[in-house]
Write a structure and sequence with these properties.
Radius of gyration: 16 Å
Distance between the termini: 43 Å
Order of helices and strands: HEHEHHEEEEEE
Strand order of the largest sheet: 4-5-2-1-3-6-7-8
Number of helices: 4
Number of strands: 8
Strand content: 25-35%
Length: about 170
Amino acid sequence: MLPDATDEQVAALKAFRDAIGVPSQNTVMQKVIPADQISTYITEARRPRGFVATADDAGTSVFQTSDEMVEGLRLDHLGDPDTVGIIEWELVDEAAIEIPYSPRYGGSTVEDHPFNGNGLVNNPDRIVPESKIADAVEITPSNGAMFVLDRQGNKQLVAIWENGAWSPVP
């Protein structure tokens, strides 16, 4: 958040983010997870939740290595991983997605730093709209795929979503 922002600046930033809106149906979405959670997602048929972005705004065409992904999306809690997991899927229900605004921006989302509350990733070099899967919603990852991305930019398919579960890809 901009701690010294005036009310007018907050209103202007919120209007900017509101104009971007939430992703529409069939948009390819992305969730980055710690690589050590991939097997848990597969065995427990976990679905993406929490903070997400569109693949166009935050995918591997934008952030090409695990380091760039962690830095660019301010995934500080992941530390300095050699690899990250990426879940991609087509959005079926846009009502399941909300813009994560803090109370200062008229919302109710409260998170630790680097969350800034304005609906954008706290990245000074690139505008990345962030969204959040509503807390009470369990999405179905339509056309879902799970990948591992490494420091060299190698993106390897590890699972696909089919019949209500993740199926490992040999």
